[in-house]
């Protein structure tokens, strides 16, 4: 589905991401994890076209998309959400989702000003795609409601619907559970699984390790901008390099330790 080869970017003399080579398998949930400052967000921005890499290549569905602009990356079949829910709160839930489909439309400014047949067709296509996306995320009944009146979880679903309306093959979720309580997090996890079961491939950046270990099929671990581990959750959680990065060589608890114990069915130490 997606492969990065020797991917890197420098900001001044600092390597924010350096020489990362990895493969994202199709039809699975891949989590990108690492301590604060590991380069996770920068890596996300590289593969989604927000940053242009200094070195390396990004291959998506057999196509080199390394130098594509953000809207071209979306048009190629990739969409993303953001840690801070970027919705238009004064617009309806439906109107927000329609915005997500606009990358697929053909009408220009003149068409919009003159309300040409092409503009009307594009608008109907956007409306249909938006309703399909809202149905997929379970909020079609709230289509006419102002997006700002939705709960925190509801607004997260609006943001996901905006991404889905562009009809992606690969969905990037930037800290999807940020700001959500445990019950909302469980509900969102179920939605992500449903989307993957429906044919999507998902990459997510997430700090909640209990979520990552129970949700991800595949994990990529970054530290100081470099890949230090990659594999299935059970393998990664026991990797000494990963434990060292999260906890320090003398630590036996903490976030990764608790996630490891939980995945093994153990009770983590207080």
TrEMBL record:
It holds the Pfam family BCA_ABC_TP_C. GO terms for molecular function: ATP binding; ATP hydrolysis activity; L-isoleucine transmembrane transporter activity; L-phenylalanine transmembrane transporter activity; L-valine transmembrane transporter activity. Transmembrane segments: none annotated. GO terms for cellular component: plasma membrane. GO terms for biological process: D-alanine transmembrane transport; L-alanine transport; L-isoleucine import across plasma membrane; L-valine import across plasma membrane. It comes from the Bacteria. Residues 2-249 form the ABC transporter domain. InterPro entries: AAA+_ATPase, ABC_AA/LPS_Transport, ABC_transporter-like_ATP-bd, BCA_ABC_TP_C, P-loop_NTPase. Gene3D superfamilies: P-loop containing nucleotide triphosphate hydrolases. Keywords: ATP-binding, Nucleotide-binding, Transport. CDD domains: ABC_Mj1267_LivG_branched. PANTHER family: AMINO ACID ABC TRANSPORTER ATP-BINDING PROTEIN (PTHR45772:SF7), CONSERVED COMPONENT OF ABC TRANSPORTER FOR NATURAL AMINO ACIDS-RELATED (PTHR45772). This is Leucine/isoleucine/valine transporter ATP-binding subunit. It comes from Deinococcus puniceus. The gene is livG.
């Amino acid at each position: 589905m997606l492969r990065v080869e020797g991917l890197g970017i420098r900001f001044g003399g600092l390597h924010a991401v350096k020489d990362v080579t990895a493969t994202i398998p199709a039809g699975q949930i891949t989590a990108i994890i690492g301590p604060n400052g590991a380069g996770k967000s920068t890596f996300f921005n590289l593969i989604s076209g927000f940053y242009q890499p200094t070195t390396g290549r990004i291959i998506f569905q057999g196509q080199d998309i390394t130098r594509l602009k953000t809207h071209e990356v979306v048009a190629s079949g990739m969409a993303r959400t953001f840690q801070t829910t970027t919705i238009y709160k004064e617009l309806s839930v439906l109107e927000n989702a329609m915005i997500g489909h606009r990358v697929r439309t053909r009408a220009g400014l003149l068409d919009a000003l003159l309300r040409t047949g092409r503009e009307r067709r594009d608008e109907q296509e956007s409306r249909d795609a938006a309703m399909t996306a809202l149905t997929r995320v379970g909020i079609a009944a709230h289509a006419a409601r102002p997006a700002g009146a939705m709960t925190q979880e509801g607004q997260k679903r609006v943001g996901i619907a905006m991404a889905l309306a562009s009809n992606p093959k690969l969905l990037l979720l930037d800290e999807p559970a940020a700001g959500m309580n445990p019950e909302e997090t469980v509900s969102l996890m179920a939605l992500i699984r449903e989307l993957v079961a429906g044919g999507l491939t998902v990459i997510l950046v997430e700090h909640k390790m209990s979520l990552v270990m129970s949700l991800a099929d595949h994990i990529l671990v970054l530290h100081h901008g470099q890949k230090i581990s990659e594999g299935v959750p059970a393998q990664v959680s026991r990797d000494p390099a990963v434990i060292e990065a999260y906890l320090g060589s003398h630590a036996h608890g903490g976030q990764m330790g608790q996630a490891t114990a939980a995945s093994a069915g153990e009770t983590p130490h207080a």
